[in-house]
């Protein structure tokens, strides 16, 4: 009798539900090996973005999607949408903060995405990104080296987990009390340059990790052309000669993460400054050969806003909270589980309740924090329930891909993205990981 073929769904679920990181890594390696054998490659979008910066194409915006829960199920839905629409330019991402409160370490997230690609028989590059790899301004002020070392460790762990796209967010270090714009941006560009160089030192041979910078913290004042030029001038001065720099720049144009919640629990309409977004994207391309500007905090915008991103030549748009909202508000999610989660929040997140805040505002603001503690129960839902929730959100994915014009770009991506198989080997004398890369079969 021959060996029974591995069931990728069983491996993925075992990976998600295991609390043992060593076991997660063993299961992840199985998934990575199967992915490579099936023509699925964790990849960097760097060369594709540089081609856009050179003006070789445009007219669409790359969706970067954060999956905070039901990652395997929703990733399958995204791959189905991509296959139907001949699309390859889309990104799966997870922020530093999300890794914590959703209980998804990089190795789990990367492997879950690849498992979904295997199940849906997707082929080609898969872009996995570390989103908002952010520095805490207070901790940085107290001990900058310690804060930097912590972020370097996360970057290394993520790259080892197939995250070949890293967004550095040192915009938290911008100091608006300084009189000159370049002085305001000093710590931002200094740290971004240091971390870019660190990434270049540890990236797998044959893979140029895509690195993003950020000039304006999401939820604060809008970015300006002067901010962008001051950051880029300082960044390029500080970047070691011969090192490859960033390929895109995140800006603030009026959004906030999760949106602004009204007393009844609905999200307020946001007036996003598309003209600023368009201008900053143009400057990024024409003056610095970057792919363009990146918009964060966009998923809760009104539906009629999304086509404008492509019209403004926005390079990338980050989408997260709305998909989490759709899970919680799905008619397929058992009422008793939702009630249990909300009751848990009232006790365990009580310290986050602000005076005058309605219960709806409190729940909306804090419910992301329950995704990690209730991960096992959410993943333990019957397959039929998870499938129905995923189908609802799949319609939203399809809408977004089409509104962003992120369709029919498979051949374009193939033209600029070289597939590399990365083999991770441990040195016998050290625990450090050595990366090498091979061409695709």
Give an overview of the whole structure.
The protein has 441 residues and is α/β, with parallel strands linked by helices. The protein has one domain (8-439): Aldolase class I (TIM Barrel, Alpha-Beta Barrel), CATH 3.20.20.70. It contains 19 helices and 11 strands. Strands 2-3-4-5-6-7-8-9 form an 8-stranded parallel barrel, surrounded by 6 helices. A two-stranded antiparallel sheet has the order 10-11. Helix 4 crosses helix 18 (383-403). It is globular and about 55 Å long. Residues 1-5 and 426-441 have low confidence and may be disordered.
The CATH class designation is Alpha Beta
Give the rounded overall mean pLDDT. 91
Helix count, per DSSP?
19
Structural class: alpha/beta
Domain count: the total is 1
Could you estimate the helical fraction of the residues in percent?
40-55%
User: What would the principal axes of the Cα set say about the shape?
Assistant: globular
- Spans of at least 5 consecutive residues whose pLDDT stays below 50 are 1-5, 426-441
Strand order of the largest sheet: 2-3-4-5-6-7-8-9
The major β-sheet equals: 8 strands, parallel, barrel
Present the secondary structure layout.
Elements: H1 8-17, H2 21-37, E1 40-43, H3 46-53, E2 62-66, H4 71-84, E3 91-95, H5 96-101, H6 106-119, E4 124-134, H7 137-142, H8 144-160, E5 165-169, H9 181-184, H10 186-202, E6 210-214, H11 225-238, E7 248-251, H12 274-288, E8 293-295, H13 307-311, E9 316-319, H14 321-329, H15 335-348, H16 359-366, H17 375-379, H18 383-403, H19 410-416, E10 420-426, E11 433-439
Parallel strand pairs: 1-4, 2-3, 2-9, 3-4, 4-5, 5-6, 6-7, 7-8, 8-9
Antiparallel strand pairs: 10-11
């Amino acid at each position: 009798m021959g060996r029974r073929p591995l069931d990728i769904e069983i491996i993925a679920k075992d990976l998600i539900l295991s609390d043992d990181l060593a076991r997660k890594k063993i299961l992840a390696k199985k998934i990575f090996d199967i992915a490579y054998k099936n023509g699925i490659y964790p990849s960097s979008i760097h060369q594709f973005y540089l081609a856009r910066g050179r003006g070789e194409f445009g007219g669409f915006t790359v969706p970067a999607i954060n999956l905070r829960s039901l990652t395997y199920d929703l990733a399958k839905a995204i791959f189905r949408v991509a296959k139907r629409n001949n699309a390859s330019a889309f990104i799966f991402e997870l922020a530093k903060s999300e890794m914590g409160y959703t209980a998804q370490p990089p190795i789990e997230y990367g492997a879950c995405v690849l498992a979904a690609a295997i199940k849906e028989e997707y082929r080609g590059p898969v872009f996995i990104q570390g989103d908002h790899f952010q520095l805490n301004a207070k901790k940085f002020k107290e001990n900058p080296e310690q804060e930097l070392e912590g972020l370097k460790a996360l970057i290394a762990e993520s790259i080892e987990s197939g995250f070949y796209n890293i967004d550095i967010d040192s915009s938290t270090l911008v100091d608006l009390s300084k009189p000159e714009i370049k002085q305001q941006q000093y710590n931002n560009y200094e740290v971004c340059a240091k971390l870019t160089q660190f990434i270049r030192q540890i990236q797998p041979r044959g893979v140029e990790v895509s690195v993003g910078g950020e000039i304006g913290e999401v939820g604060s004042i809008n970015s300006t052309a002067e901010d962008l030029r001051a950051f880029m001038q300082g960044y390029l001065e500080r970047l070691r000669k011969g090192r490859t720099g960033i390929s895109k720049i995140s800006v603030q144009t009026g959004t906030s993460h999760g949106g602004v919640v009204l007393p009844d629990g609905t999200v307020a309409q946001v007036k996003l400054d598309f003209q600023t977004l368009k201008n900053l994207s143009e400057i990024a391309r024409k003056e610095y050969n970057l792919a363009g500007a990146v918009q964060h905090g966009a998923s809760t915008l009104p539906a009629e806003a999304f086509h404008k991103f492509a019209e403004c030549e926005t390079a990338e748009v980050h989408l997260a909270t709305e998909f989490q909202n759709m899970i919680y508000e799905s008619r397929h999610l058992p009422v008793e589980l939702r009630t249990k989660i909300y009751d848990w929040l009232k006790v365990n997140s009580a310290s986050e309740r602000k005076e005058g805040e309605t219960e709806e505002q409190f729940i909306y603001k804090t419910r992301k924090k329950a995704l990690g503690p209730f991960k096992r129960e959410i993943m333990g839902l019957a397959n039929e329930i998870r499938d129905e929730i995923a189908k609802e959100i799949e319609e939203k994915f399809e809408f977004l891909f089409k509104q962003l014009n992120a369709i029919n770009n498979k051949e374009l991506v193939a033209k600029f993205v070289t597939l590399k198989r990365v083999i991770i080997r441990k040195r016998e004398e050290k625990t450090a990981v050595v990366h090498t890369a091979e061409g695709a079969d």
